[in-house]
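Tokens in:
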């Protein structure tokens, strides 16, 4: 194997701020190894020894104040856990399938949705493994003993949950693993984030950059709300009672179940208005001077969060009409239309993406390498 390839591979394990410097130094050592009476293998072993013993939280290596690395790793791990929990719970709630009385989905759409659910499940499992690695790394880099133990427990709990998800594990064991993981994350975050004073990095975005994104976000939210309202009141009822017009469905529900269309429409209208106002407030805020802190990443967090929460709460906005249909026509109370099945994926994925954007805050730039260890740590918002 090429010595340079080994040195490049080892340098990739070093903190990003010092990778090129170490690689340049090791290449220089390799070039002069013969004159110094050393073998190339000695240079490779020395590089590996440096990588294994380096203080990976040292400011001279990270370019950041000490303590920033474990915080960043734990934040990313927590974001991944939030995303995995969101997607997993959503798939569990909406994974019951479509009842036999509902209109069948087009074969192509049904196959696409099944493939998307499977892909999301695989990605969620991979994200859980990655979160465990982040917490394990945070445990290694944390100086506080409590944080080390807690993050190690979180990493072990996540790894065990991934394995347990494919095994016939009892509910008590699963609950214990969830408790271990949750406690490890909470205690670890509390211990690590209290170790060093924090200072929020102030970031801003010019109006010409944030306003188009804000208007686009508002437009997307409006489309989702309009489609969600129409689906709840029209398309989903027709999918649950195929071959019957919406007027006939409403008349039958009024006669058999005392259904009140105005109440159902009001519930959906309130749902839509609340989230439209929330998205409008973000857009107006982004268009003012006070909204300069709304960077593209933060706008993405807000709009995706609104979409995710709105689509989840749509289940409650349509609860009344859904139960009336179920009681009148002996169907299930779930949403079965094609658009509902799409929304069952779009909602949790949007919220999970917002969580990931929150976790992957840009790393603050250090004023200079080798900052004093007692310096207040800067945390990206």
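Residues out:
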């Amino acid at each position: 194997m090429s010595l340079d390839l080994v040195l490049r591979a080892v340098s990739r394990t070093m903190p990003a701020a010092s990778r090129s410097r170490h690689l340049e130094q090791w290449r220089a050592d390799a070039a002069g190894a013969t004159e110094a009476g050393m073998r190339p293998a000695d240079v490779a072993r020395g590089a590996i020894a440096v990588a294994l013993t380096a203080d990976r939280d040292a400011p001279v290596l990270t370019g950041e104040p000490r303590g920033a690395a474990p915080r960043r790793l734990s934040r990313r791990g927590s974001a991944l856990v939030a995303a995995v929990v969101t997607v997993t719970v959503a798939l569990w709630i909406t994974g019951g399938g479509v009842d036999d009385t509902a209109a069948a989905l087009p074969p192509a759409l049904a196959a696409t949705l099944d493939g998307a659910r499977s892909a999301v499940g695989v990605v969620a499992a991979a994200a859980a493994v990655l979160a465990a690695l982040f917490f394990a790394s945070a445990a290694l880099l944390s100086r506080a003993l409590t944080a080390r133990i807690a993050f190690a427990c979180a990493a072990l709990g996540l790894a065990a949950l991934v394995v347990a998800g494919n095994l016939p594990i009892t509910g008590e064991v699963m609950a214990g693993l969830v408790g271990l993981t949750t406690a490890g994350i909470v205690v670890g975050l509390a211990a690590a984030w209290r170790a060093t004073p924090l200072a929020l990095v102030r970031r801003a975005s010019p109006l010409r950059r944030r306003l188009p994104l804000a208007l686009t976000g508002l437009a997307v939210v409006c489309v989702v709300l309009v489609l969600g309202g129409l689906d709840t009141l029209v398309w989903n009822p027709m999918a649950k009672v195929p071959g019957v017009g919406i007027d006939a469905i409403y008349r039958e529900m009024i006669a058999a179940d005392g259904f009140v269309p105005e109440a159902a429409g009001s519930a959906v209208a309130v749902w839509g208005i609340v989230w439209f106002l929330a998205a409008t407030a973000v857009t107006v805020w982004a268009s003012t001077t006070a909204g300069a802190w709304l960077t593209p990443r933060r706008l993405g967090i807000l709009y995706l969060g609104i979409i995710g929460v709105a689509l989840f709460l749509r289940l409650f906005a349509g609860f009344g009409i859904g139960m009336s249909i179920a009681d009148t026509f002996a169907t299930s109370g779930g949403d079965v239309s094609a658009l509902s099945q799409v929304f069952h994926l779009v909602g949790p994925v949007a919220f999970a993406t917002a969580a990931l954007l929150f976790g992957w805050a840009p790393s603050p730039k250090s004023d200079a390498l080798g900052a004093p260890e007692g310096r207040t740590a800067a945390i990206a918002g």
